[in-house]
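G., the chain you wanted modeled:
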Amino acid sequence: MTTTEIRPVTTEAESSRRVLNWPVILLSLLAAVPVVSMIVEVVRAPRLNYLDYWSVLGLASSPTGHFHPAGLLVVYNQHPVVIAGTLFWLDAKFFAGSNNVLGVLVILLSLAIVVAMASMLPRRLSPTVRAAAVAGFALLMFSSGNLENFVEGMSGTHWLSGLAPAVVAIALAHRGRTVPALLLGVVACLGHGSAFPVWIALAVVAWLRGDRRWKVISPLAVGLLAVVGALIALATLPGSSAIPTPTLSLDRVLAVTAGVVGQLWSSQVPDIAMLAGTLTMIGLVLAIALVVRTRVRPPDQRESAEAAGWTGFAVLTIIAAAMIGISRSGAADNIGESGRYAVIGGLATCALLALVVILWRRVSVLPVVVLAVTVGLVTFTLGSGQATNVRNQYPDQGVLAVAARLSATNAMSSLRMPATITPVLKGLGVYPFTPDFTIGCGGPELGGTLDVGNAPLLPGPGHGTSAGFVESGQVSGDTVLYGWAVVNGKRPDCVLVVDSGNHIVGGGYVGVARPDVAGAMRTTDIDTGWRAVAAPAATKPQVVILSGGNAYRVSVEPKP
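Predicted structure as tokens:
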């Protein structure tokens, strides 16, 4: 009798596990590139925090630095700051007010958004298509045009303390988990005003899924309560706002709204950003209409369910952009191109990309990969100009740290740090009031001495390979000084200010880009600029730069 060998049947899924899916691996690596790039940017960013951090920290703290939660019950620039203020105080208490720590937090919240978006992609899509979409999401969320929200951690923390919970709430509702979605919606509304449309988004998701009626009504009911609460807060709570009165001009509202949505496509030319934003919004509205059409046609209801989360997501971004357009329309037509709004443009583009992939059922894998990667790479590249503008603000933070240490209140005010926050910073031990503060000169520090009596005076431009100039004019205390210096064709190592008694009474930042000086001095080093500040009561201060361990005085008036 002949025996037949029985071999186990190998399914296609089991076979695929044994073979590396190189397209998915390569696309996953591509998705990691902007994340790693942003980590590097955050590490290189200034340690000192920016702008609204100081005002909000003042609300969250008592004069001695203790947590003061009641102070956060305010409306700040038309937004809640309950969560952001708490996070700022924790940063100040446990991390000495590190801007870099907040930047890391923004990275983590952005990753949570990318994961939430990935979870809403239908499983019917091939692994390669899903990987391509995730790569596109990562390039958009971590775009160079969105750099401001990462390296100015206070900005991204405030935005994402509302938007991140809102996006995760939509992802939960997409899977029918209404109760946790509602809870996260409440958290989102305590984080940032742009998250308030989440209630409409959650109701849309539930309706498109064909959920029970209470799942559709409950978000609307909670949202109504949230709106009423917001109106009462605006009318009764103390507020702080530097926002111009909104205009009722429709063209201005549309221009700002479109600029916000299209910001990643052009931060330098407003008309291009507005055009890109308008086309993106038209695309989103058409996609929403297609999904709604499948919902009202019984045979196609399953199609509306798989796009439910993304449709709600699109609703959130459109309404959030419109809210910004209305509330900021009194500022300028191009206010939407401000770097802080790039997060809205990134989310809106992610929504459109996902809806195109989901609704374009007959498309093959290659066009989807090309579309997702192209959109992500193009917007990432176009954001370079915006990123450069953000990096150009770094020198001011170095000067501001010195000004705060010196209690140079006029300089602090010009660099947008209120002098009234100083007791809080000292009470909490916030940088620059930390033991490791330094002016970066490798030895000489504020309060020390440096004999510059025999230090050579750098001549003005046109005198060989060594020259320097105090462009801000006469050197005086409590004002921001600026200029440039070149020693043997190279930038200086550090800048400081010395008074008539050789006491070090100031310092600042070196390495400011000055391509004009490089051309005039015929040097390849373009970062020859410096900025500094001196103590208010400094006597006959003079700017001194160090190069190669030697001190050089910098000319106030260029020699002919």
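The beta strands are 75-76, 239-240, 457-458, 467-470, 480-486, 494-498, 504-512, 529-534, 542-547, 550-554.

Shout if anything looks off.
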